[in-house]
Write a structure and sequence with these properties.
alpha+beta, 2 domains, five-stranded antiparallel beta sheet, Germin-like protein, secreted, signal
């Protein structure tokens, strides 16, 4: 058997093997009492229909905070039924002027649908830092590719509400402002790596709870 045929046979058998493994069980409801790994939670042994239902997205979040926004996740840690399925959701409430600052989801792409209000939303590509942003109204949908910096801003006069879906049970979250200023990284080091003024950095650290 030549090398090309060997490679084809190997990949064919690998696909068949992986498909057969995927058919062994229908789901893996997360055992939230156990440890979490990059692959998710281990499987819960006793499963009920309630494991596949989540009521949290029907409740409005508290927007009385510095960003005037609230995000209610339905990730594997809150909704164990999505564990291992490669999906999750979240609800976002924004008061007038509210914003979800520039952030990334390293573990998944995001799709958004506006249910109430008006948003300005966008993302920045990793090639040439090209910016894609748009005003979104009720019923509009926008997608944000995995790992790219993006934001959502309530640009209307009333409250805004949107639902997002992810192709991961736990897409992760890192908000750029909090990563830079809600920590104990020395101010001088932040200044050297961001080109920001020291006084402004100290002010932002004070507002967001950072030290250093």
């Amino acid at each position: 058997m030549n090398t090309t045929n060997s490679v084809l046979v190997f990949f064919t058998l690998s696909l068949l093997f992986s498909s057969s493994l995927g058919a062994v069980q229908d789901f893996c409801v997360g055992d939230l009492k156990g440890p979490q790994s990059p692959a998710g939670y281990s499987c819960k042994t006793k499963v009920t229909v309630d494991d596949f239902v989540y009521h949290g997205l029907g409740v409005k979040g508290n927007t009385t905070n510095i960003i005037k926004a609230a995000v209610t996740p339905a990730f594997d840690a809150q909704f164990p039924g999505v564990n291992g399925l490669g999906i999750s959701m979240a609800r976002a409430d924004l008061a007038p002027g509210g914003v979800i600052p520039f952030h990334t989801h390293p573990g998944g792409s995001e799709i958004l649908i506006v249910l109430e209000g008006t948003l300005c939303a966008g993302f920045v590509s990793s090639s040439a830092n090209q910016v894609f942003f748009k005003t979104l109204n009720k019923g509009d949908v926008m997608v944000f590719p995995q790992g790219l910096l993006h934001f959502q801003l309530n640009s209307g006069k009333g409250e805004a509400l949107f639902i997002v879906g992810f192709n991961s049970p736990n897409p992760g979250l890192q908000i750029t402002d909090f990563a830079l200023f809600k920590n104990d990284l020395p101010t001088e080091l932040v200044a050297a790596t961001t080109f920001l003024d020291v006084a402004q950095i100290k002010k932002l650290k004070g507002v967001l709870g950072g030290t250093g």
